Amino acid sequence: MTPARKRLGVNIDHVATLRQARRGQVPEPAAAASIAEHSGADGITVHLREDRRHIQDRDLEVLKRVVTTRINLEMAATDEITRIACSLMPHSCTLVPEKREEITTEGGLDVLGNREAINRTAERLKKAGIVVSMFIDPELPQVRASRQAGADAIEIHTGTFCEAFAAGKHEAELAKIRAAAAFGASLGLKVFAGHGLDVRNIVPILEIAAIEEFNIGHSIIARAVFLGLPAAVKEIADLIHHGGGHSSPQWEDTPSLRPGSEPGMSPPGRGVPRG
Ligand code: PXP
User: Fold this and answer.
1) Which structural domain, as residue segments, surrounds residue 156?
2) First to last CA, the chain
3) For the domain that residue 14 is a member of, what is the CATH number?
4) What is the model's pLDDT at position 244?
5) How far is the centre of ligand 1, averaged over its atoms, from the C-alpha of 135 (Å)?
6) CA-to-CA distance for 262 and 251, rounded, in angstroms?
7) Which of 27, 73, 77, 106 is the most exposed place for a label (fewest CB within 10 A)?
8) What is the value of pTM for the model shown?
9) pLDDT by residue (tens digit) across 22-62?
């Protein structure tokens, strides 16, 4: 049987972060969404944070009109954001933990410890017809709790794996992801993955058959600074869709722009700089 085609969701929060640095009009996240779709993205992911530090309410309205693939809205399980989600009607919502002081989402959602709020939110979203995903660490009790809380899908937090990959010893973390993915699939959940993924560390994760979708933001926007957004999206979309067999000729003559060779990058295990 041919394995199912894996999907790339491009997280465009960092485009909004750049715009909010000047509180101006550019760069426009919806334009980035269109370019990402034309370059191979299967969906667009945005996180409407309670503090509105990057994506704004207006962005969601524009994206809803512009996006032709799928919108995945990352959100905290709060009344305000649930109300917004139910009126926006994205394809899916991914429930994530949120702390005001964090730089980015740190760790997965504690579904076990917050069953009531998560259950209530999942119920409201599902009733509206939205697919519900839960962003969790690769821990079997959290996978089981997500199923019990009504999730249609889990997104496995790959952050710890990515750190281990950078340190050159990722086998144990990879095994955890493999086990969580297999367990999730055995419970009938769709299995996604995200956080910290890039063109190099995604390679072993791509071998996990149960994982069907990847949500990736920071590494794509960081690569886009050097390559441009179309090439940065295409590069990782090709990897996900074809296992890396279709390299773009755009940077073949520029060794410093080959994946993992930009200024400041070093091979795994030799202290990849952290941004
Ligand atoms: N998935 C989820 C649930 C996230 O919260 C994030 C970060 O916003 C991502 C994926 C993307 O992570 P990164 O920007 O490190 O690729």
Assistant:
1) 7-257
2) 41
3) 3.20.20.70
4) 54
5) 9
6) 11
7) 106
8) 0.92
9) 999 999 999 999 999 999 999 999 999 999 999 999 999 99
